Amino acid sequence: MQPGTEATPFAELTPEVILGAIEHLGYQTSGRFLALNSYENRVYQIGIEDDEPLVAKFYRAGRWPDEAIFEEHSFAAELAARDIPVIAPLADVNGDTLFRYQGQRFAVYPRRGGRRPELEDEQTLRWLGRFLGRLHAVGRAGRFQYRPRLSVERYGDDALERLLASTLLPVELRTNFELAARQLIEAVREVITRVGPQTEIRLHGDFHPGNILWTPRGPHVVDLDDTQSGPAVQDLWLLLWGERSDMAAQLRILLEEYGLFCDFDPIEIQLIEALRALRMLHHCAWVAERWDDPAFPLAFSWFATPRFWESQLIEFREQLNAVLGPVLVLDT
Known about the structure:
Layout: H1 15-24, E1 29-35, E2 42-48, E3 54-58, H2 66-81, E4 99-101, E5 104-110, H3 122-139, H4 152-164, H5 174-195, E6 201-202, E7 212-215, E8 218-221, E9 229-230, H6 233-237, H7 244-258, H8 272-289, H9 295-299, H10 306-324
Antiparallel strand pairs: 1-2, 2-3, 3-5, 4-5, 6-9, 7-8
Helix pairs in contact: 3-7, 4-5, 4-8, 5-8, 5-10, 8-10
């Protein structure tokens, strides 16, 4: 068996290693496991004899140092201790939550079911507003030391450099693509400068509907792998969709409930389109950087086509107009 590389870190994550890692912790597996939807890491539902299945997350080598993963786990445990329904990793008898087996780092979680939330439902939005208000109230109470900051340098400048280094970017589009991306990044930087320094809190960091498991009793939230420090609005805008009037109404509902638990500075609303632009750049760079991982060409086959890069260029230009355009105004 060839050892895994930074590009293919899961080459040695065989069924024997997956099950062996769980049994190494003292569990008796049933021999059955199911791959769950994850690209950055590898996540599996593991059958346990005479008990409920567990979920195991195997971390991508080289992405986070151990200290950053410890902070992820600690934040999840802190939230869970406040009865905030975040699915935290299970600890062993020594209190450890990050384990090693056959060169792989992994954590184990209880399995929780659920479906995607229906964001068109007002009561769902109100529930999520309360959830984020509670999460951010805890997030304000501490600071990360090893987790990253959400910054234009990391999500904009660094992302563009990774994109320009990718052989997937067609040569004939490179000049116009780089120009559009740099104009977008500069516009984002101008907005952030105009808004001024904002309070940075501990965030979920990737609070899109796919990371929310909805049940009749409310949400369970998963995947703190991107937890970071940044403005509160980063966790809010990912729940907005539709036309500007729709997003304004949704944000008003979210903030009505959010404000019951945590203060929100309305000037952060001016950051929404700038943050959307940074997410676009970061996501594009993420796929390009991970292209040698076999899971990525399978999941994002369109990424290697000239048509994708042409459409991305157009989207950058359209997003530039959104960043420079009028700020979202909440309806009353």
